[in-house]
């Protein structure tokens, strides 16, 4: 039985050592290079006595950064990807939570590290891969490792203003990769075109199937996603046949009439998720690629990657929503109503997930973890955890799950999961701001921020850029004379919505 | 004859600046802290990212009733408000 994700790499490197595993515009790594480098990095960490602890990978998105992840795993540690473009304040907050002893950098990021007041030892990727392999240490580490040991921590938006680090273990990732690969039909001939950043669990879809099958992943340059013709040409040039993208990246291509100029020639598998795919746009894709497989994916980071899938095989009306479908094999979904009973068929309920896919919770935050990882109320005879997603859904006549809404103020914006509360708290910290309220215009994909106080908008916008990642920046800032409140003194978001609609 | 021509010219000038001003308003809403009237490296300096471009294209189609075709979505047309305004005007003429 497989107990470690590195077994994927170890089997594949025997079979296709010289095949390209990961590539971007500047560099590429074959499976044998990947394996050699990862073992060297693991040996370097072992030499310094690091084990079973978080190791931060603070590198530009590149094949090398991915290689560093696997190196951390060889060292029996778990990786924490940090993005170079994250605002310094957020990086400091994450480092403060982790208190790591080791950070792996590249030449660009190493000089930046000192400004974060980080006392960890910093390693240069290029130097680490020169370390002589200590095979004995690596096998000693492997012998100690269990499949319930963590692989990574990814940080997600937190409503209290502090990002939450979600830990996942080998067993959950293996379970996910096996079932996702079967569902989407990945194989050795799969050529992935990666869009999602490496600091979210979304990139699991490409990283581990690439190791498992000896497939190839191209990291598509970020700027391509601004220019649709360049993007489709990139897919064709690299013979990319499989993409798992956020919906907005797909609709950017279809809505601008790109297909009149250039069509994807090799693409046959398209997965999308975390947002509604407008049916009008979907039809344009289907028309250009009638034989391709289109799959809607759904899942929270707390349940390791994705939990449900729906192959779009029938026609949809323009106002109809594409379902999120059924759970992957070995994943269970409960729909619970407000009384913790199973929602009646067709009635809305909160999506709760059970299975090996459940992550280990939030790093260093037992209270937050206990709030949403709870005992299964439908089965009380022995301990069994479920994860409460906060997503409301119902079953349609076909028995497929259909997403309805959120229980709270968490939103999905351009594929990113954001707590409006985190934006409000950060805005409220700016000197002079008195009251803050955030709403989301779903139809136009806009985060709208309202505030009161003697503060100029440009100064506030500049401040927020230092505090929040780019995807959390408000798309519209409006100053009000007075913040609307409900009779019991809470922020009145409905009134804000009205102010916004009538502007 | 001359007066008439002149009046047309003035009207066109006014319309041009209106397009430009509306556009700068759209851009300013997205990034209050950026000086869109002088910046000519909106793409090169990553001030506008792919999500911004999507938003701007949508707003332009709502505001001016022109659809920017894919072959016009290139860095040169998005590096400055001036270039983008010129693109909108050329599309409005078609």
Helix content of chain B: 55-70%
Number of domain units of chain B: 1
Q: List the chains of the largest interface with their residue counts.
A: A-B, 35 and 24 residues
Quote the beta fraction of chain B.
Answer: under 5%
| Shape estimate of chain B | globular
Overview of the structural elements:
The complex is a heterodimer of chains A (503) and B (94). Chain A has 503 residues and is of the alpha/beta class. In chain A, strand 9, helix 9 (204-213) and strand 10 form a beta-alpha-beta unit. The mean pLDDT of chain A is 95. Chain B is mainly alpha-helical and 94 residues long. Chain B has four helices and no strands. Chain B has helices at 2-30, 50-64, 75-78, 81-93. Chain B is globular. Residues 1-15 of chain B have low confidence and may be disordered. The chains are: A alpha/beta (503), B mainly alpha (94). The interface between A and B is medium-sized, with 35 and 24 residues.
Write the layout of secondary structure elements.
The complex is a heterodimer of chains A (503) and B (94).
Chain A: H1 6-15, E1 20-23, E2 28-30, H2 31-47, E3 54-58, H3 63-74, E4 78-82, H4 88-98, E5 102-105, H5 110-113, E6 121-124, H6 125-128, H7 135-144, E7 150-156, E8 164-169, H8 170-184, E9 191-194, H9 204-213, E10 216-219, H10 228-237, E11 242-246, H11 247-255, E12 269-273, H12 279-288, E13 293-298, E14 308-311, E15 326-327, E16 331-336, E17 349-355, E18 361-362, H13 366-372, E19 373-375, E20 385-395, E21 401-406, E22 410-413, E23 416-419, H14 420-428, E24 433-441, E25 446-453, H15 457-467, E26 476-479, H16 493-501
Parallel strand pairs in A: 1-10, 3-4, 3-5, 5-6, 9-10, 11-12, 12-13, 25-26
Antiparallel strand pairs in A: 1-2, 7-8, 8-18, 13-14, 14-15, 16-17, 17-20, 19-20, 20-21, 22-23, 24-25
Helix pairs in contact in A: 1-9, 2-3, 8-9, 11-12
Chain B: H1 2-30, H2 50-64, H3 75-78, H4 81-93
